[in-house]
Amino acid sequence: MSEFDYDLFVIGGGSGGVRAARISSTHGAKVAIAEEYRMGGTCVIRGCVPKKMLVYGAHFAEDLHEADRYGWDISGAEFNWTRLRDIIQDDVSRLEGLYAGTLGNADVEIYKERAVLTGPNEIKLASGKVITAKYILIATGGWPANAGCPGEEHALTSNEIFHLEEKPKSIIIVGGGYIANEFAGIFHAFGSDVTVANRSEKILRPYDQEIVGKLQEMGEAKGIKYRLSAPLTKIDKNDDGTVTVHFDDGGEPQTADVVMVATGRVPNSANMGLAEIGVELDKSGAVVVGDDNKSSIDSVYAVGDVTNRVQLTPVAIREGHAFADSVFGGNPRTISYENIPSAVFSAPPIASVGLTEDAARAQHGDDIKVYKSDFRPMKNVLSGREERGLYKMITQGPEEIVIGLHMIGPESSEILQGAAIAIVGKMPKQVFDDVVAIHPSMAEELVLFK
Ligand code: FAD
Q1: If you measure from the C-alpha of residue 41 to the centroid of ligand 1, how many angstroms do you get, rounded to a whole number?
Q2: Is the pTM of this model over 0.85?
Q3: Cβ-based neighbours of 388, under 8 Å, separated by 6 or more
Q4: 315 in the same domain as 251
Q5: Is the CB of 308 under 6 A from ligand 1?
């Protein structure tokens, strides 16, 4: 008999926690998991999944607009926000059920309540129940940052945006990251008047700035406004329900139906007893862990957004899986954070892997070459849409190893995922050149760089 109730107690039923719990159980551990909100976590309930469904919904606006040029008469087409919102929420509930089912099938015991730590091997549930475990895994994710100004309670975040009662006629989205730019594309397509307001001059900082420049150019051309170098100072709620947002940029305050704040996500580690039992947290509140996901306390591990390494679902899943294999599977392993592909599901989408041109230059000086293809997708030519695509390849050294690939254009996230294999495999550009093009396609630009 073990001296503990469980071998592993996971706090947080999101991407990282669910994977860690399931795999640990398959390795033979006795596992329980606590989730205080809904099983599936941010990605499934109020992140990647419902967001991508909105992106799909938004795409119809473009397609319907161009349908005429493709011979379709679609007069009378109308967008219904509440219908799409409710259908998405139904599917989110279906997925939530699947997640709980998968855990149940793997013999993981589920506690649908908040859990906090009361000792290196002890957890207390909201119901008051005290549980002991040999290992505790913190997988509590992140939480949207507040606006940090007077009136911040009048701002919505990504948590609330999926549940809007009606489509806003106008929306100010504060922030310059991927979530801000994705929702800008979504609401613009649905017909809202959209302003992206960002504290600094640059948006989407981690991405290649030439590619980002294209997004901004195309966004402006279609009517998205960018209010840059505009720190948020105050939000007023008006009697008619609108909000007036003040910025420290010398300009006039701006009124809109909704202000959404998307200025980043903070690790979800507050009031969990972590510091009290000696778990080291950094300045942002992230649990400090080593490559083995172990915290400063031997029995406490952490994976996913709460560690603030790379805040992406596939990374949280990999960390959770590596934890389970290492601690319970007899296969200690770490994951690589190099060359992680990522996308911004903006309109059009951006996708990227490896070093940006600026980063490659900073690292390798003149020992790099930059190849570009600036093209008008064939579909846009027939429809008369002016939007162009831009693909960039960065190579290094005489062998021309591909160290960066950056794209903006239709379906770029789908196209880049395959190409990322070559970057992780450290292949030279010659391999791309040797591949015969699939014609006509946008992806063929990847093997035709001159
Ligand atoms: P989470 O999935 O956040 O799960 C943590 C869980 O812990 C939550 O369910 C929470 O309720 C629970 N919890 C917290 N505290 C406690 C407690 N004390 N007791 C019990 N339960 C607790 N990533 C991508 O890769 N691609 C995307 O396109 C993408 N889009 C996104 C869009 C939006 C709008 C947002 C907000 C995020 C998006 N992300 C995307 C990021 C992705 O959702 C996260 O990186 C991922 O969910 C992190 O997983 P996690 O396991 O660390 O935490």
Answers
A1: 5
A2: yes
A3: 214, 218, 374, 375, 376, 377, 380, 409
A4: no
A5: no
